[in-house]
Amino acid sequence: MEEEHDLSLGKYLKEMRKQSGLTIKQIVNMSEGILDKTTISRIERNERGLSLKAAYAFSKTYNIDIMELTEYAIEKKITPERVPFDTNEEEQALIEEFRVLSDRRKKALKEILRGLAMAAEENSSIKVRRKLKETLSYYKAQQPPEHLQDNHFSC
Predict the structure, then answer these.
(1) What is the pLDDT of residues 61-119, one digit of tens each?
(2) Residue 39 pLDDT > 90, yes or no?
(3) pLDDT > 90? residue 138
(4) Contact in structure between 87 and 95 (CB atoms under 8 Å)
(5) Residue 154 lies in a domain
(6) How many domains does the chain have?
(7) Are residues 55 and 8 in the same domain?
(8) What per-residue confidence (pLDDT) applies to 38?
(9) Domain that holds residue 58
C-alpha cells in the first residue's frame, strides 16, 4: 500500500527546523560538520537530494526516524500488506499493533520485553526483577527510575 506525503522533503525539513525554532547556522553546528549552510538551504529549496550522511544528520538533529526521511525523499510511504516473514495470526496481530505505536511506546515495550526475558532466565537476580518493576512503574508514572535516567537499560 502506498501513501503520498503532502509536503516535499525540503519543505518538510524546513518546517521541522522552524518548528524547532532553529536557524540554519544552528543546524550546521548540531550536525558536527556533516551539513553546511549551502547544503541545508539547497535541500530545503528542493534543489538538491538527500545523501545518506545528510539524512543521518537530519534524523539525529530533528529526532526523526531515518525511514520517515526516506519516505519523504521517495515521496511515498510503502506499507507491506502482510508481514514479510512466516508468523501465525496472533504474532501478526501483535506486529500490526506494534507498528502503530509511538516511538516512545515502542521503546517502552522493548524495555519491558527485554526485562521479562532477563527475569525468565534461571539465573535472574533480584536486581533484574527490581529494575523490571521500576521500568514498568516508570512507563505508568512517566517518572524515570535511576537506571533509566541515561536512556538505557543496564544490569
Answers:
(1) 888 888 888 877 777 666 656 555 677 888 888 888 888 888 888 888 888 888 777 76
(2) yes
(3) no
(4) yes
(5) no
(6) 2
(7) yes
(8) 95
(9) 2-78
Give yes or no: residues 38 and 69 share one domain.
yes
* Rounded Cα distance, 144 and 9, in Å: 35
Q: Which long-range contacts (CB under 8 A, 24 or more apart) does 135-140 make?
A: 135/108, 135/111, 136/112, 139/108, 139/111, 139/112
| Number of separate helices (H) and strands (E) present in the chain | 8, 2
CATH number of domain containing 20:
1.10.260.40
Q: Tell whether 125 is covered by a domain.
A: yes
Lookup: cell for 110: 522493548
CA-CA-CA-CA dihedral for 121, 123, 128, 129, to nearest 10: 70
Identify which has the larger pLDDT, 132 or 107. 107
Q: Contact at 8 Å (CB) between 95 and 53?
A: no
